[in-house]
Amino acid sequence: MELIKKALEFENRKMKFPTTSDRILASREAKSLILSLNELYKESKDKKIMDIMKRLTSVKQRIEKRLKGKPLTSS
Hints:
By secondary structure, the protein is mostly helical. 77% of the residues lie in helices and 0% in strands.
């Protein structure tokens, strides 16, 4: 259950990433945690694991939205 502890720690971490490379690393870490939890979920079908994966996915989406930046508007 170390994986679940790691995921919860990532979720509760401050989400301030000053540089782009920090955001990329955080996005990759979230993705690897989600995939690992998914393998665990396939075996146990535990609802708690699914909830953790959903929350991590939302964190990952916020990080990726920040990575993509503001869309340019044509003038």
